């Protein structure tokens, strides 16, 4: 798209109350806008990043048989009463303007809703296993929401739920989801560490988190870099500096991490609450065994920025970048330069390259370069009087220092 | 996808409290699930329909320069205080579990939020015009929510907002949006009537609605079928039976309609509330002129069902159908039949035809035919011992009576 048509602009300064790196760059770049504490709008180029991440997640969820659906944000009291979670403090209540008492909680998770839905469709062991997921806004009244997209009160999440006839089958699928998650994070450019954690409000047994190491992380993790043994410090029985219990020779470290995903073996907690039973092969009745699996999509976006940036701005991995190429027209906007740059823009679009075309006039080359560094699009393509004379494009990757002049054909081979 | 893997099933009966045709068929087919009054989950095949409709809307919004973004559902009190809409009764309030007073309303529209965001990016007349839209869940505390997807308390909506330097430019764009809307509804199979209506909480001048004629409609419209003159009865100055004021010879009728979209010339109401001004070409300061434009996506889905059904079930238009073809394997599931049907299934997938494959065993032909009629997928393809012998497929369109036997190659020419 043409940058002159984008309604957002880059800002020289981030709001003073934003302390996190991700919020500073994302706000300055016009990716997000802060409406309230922990509540952000996704502006057009930020929404493109969210859609890229969501696209990767959808592919991997579909690959393990996940069926996409969409549940309500307003979850009626009856659901939370059944599971005993109505009073959980993380929830926001909702009610009509003239009503006295709240009858809804804003969905912070959907085990109850899907357990009830599933109870209408599950009758026999033959109806399982299956798994369903949604990509949807979640609401949690976080007491401290000061880390930009890392901890939101309203945030986008992918939540998957699976239904099984036995714990054994649950753990077979649990392992499939684990692999899919590691693949998702890798495709997003993140090295996620599979970490044992406590259950919280979801389950009584241990659960697992996917932690990404960064100084911005709010979690502490006890990690062995040799074998990958990893425990959330909240439950860790071992200490930093001690010997790794998982391998010979490893020494445990304490690192900071962001929890980008988590998986929960729920067992029969919710199927008991909703009388979700099935007829077994030999005619008996048993409770369905459930699992639930979350990924914070906005949080993944924020974590990527924490991991991939320098002092000038963001360095998006190619898989999640809002555009693949940033085409800059610099110097005097002669008719010839405008024509040549437009030709390249149209050629790139034609071969399917997503490109942001900085066609703004009256903006200095220095400003355009600074904006390109801030926005962090992988390939910067510069057109100027100099490159036009040589019939070439100046190409620089965001994460490299050196630019080089290339013929259009060679450029297409590189990025198309 | 294979029907045996779909976690939903068709139901023989609709819930007794559902009186509308759309809710009855959509629930029986497993497209939606009712969680609370006016609050539905979209189940996997229903979510596919929503995604089809949303895809059409996105294409047409992008074609008129709309930039997609995503705003919060939780709208802080400060926004509604600025516009004087905090106390509007349609809103649901939200608050933390331990908080005394609500500080948020669940977004039932987003003029305020986007006006504030725009105020950070608009400074000069050169920054306009532009338009931004989102596809998002909206919340309205409707007193009567008994028409299935036609009137929800939580529902999916596309809302577009435009920003202009003058009323003249607003009305130029307003007309572009009108054309885009008519195109969207037509692509969804709906004949929408452009109808003059009152402003309500949004604006002081007249606005326009897009009404689809159906007995299920809750609105009354005074219409001239000759020239298309149309007024919502709430503001109509003319009566049914009278002469059309718009043409010679037309006689006005009163019809029932569903409002699937609406467009509002907002003027400066929200730019005044948020001090959204711009510097004019000659250095003055003026308020930005805004427009807003909505389409109820769930309501479009419900309306399509009201318009396209028979006594057996839904008849989806091809553009919004959850699948293009419904492949039924009937009769004894011999190895040969299963192999041949699977081959056709894989061939269809390979050439890009979306197909639901009813591979269920132990389900009678009668049940499969009834399910196919209920689900309403445009092409029904039947494979049985009889068709295998002839090396053909039995093909029937949902809206036609007669089936015919076709060679696979001819079928591909027809639907691929």
Account of the 3D structure:
Two copies of one chain form a homodimer. In chain A, 30% of the residues lie in helices and 29% in strands. With 416 residues, chain A is α+β, with helices and mostly antiparallel strands. Chain A has two domains: 3-310, Bira Bifunctional Protein, Domain 2 (BirA Bifunctional Protein, domain 2); 325-415, 3-Layer(aba) Sandwich (Rossmann fold). In chain A, strands 3, 7, 8, 9, 10, 11, 12, 13 and 16 form a nine-stranded mixed β-sheet that branches. In chain A, helix 1 (21-28) crosses helix 7 (297-307), helix 2 (44-63) packs antiparallel against helix 5 (167-187) and helix 2 (44-63) crosses helix 7. The longest helix of chain A is centred in the middle third of the chain and has 21 residues, at 167-187. Chain A starts with 20 loop residues before the first helix and ends with a helix. The model of chain A has no long low-confidence stretch (mean pLDDT 96). At the A-B interface, strand 1, strand 2, helix 2, strand 4 and strand 5 of A face strand 1, strand 2, helix 2, strand 4 and strand 5 of B.
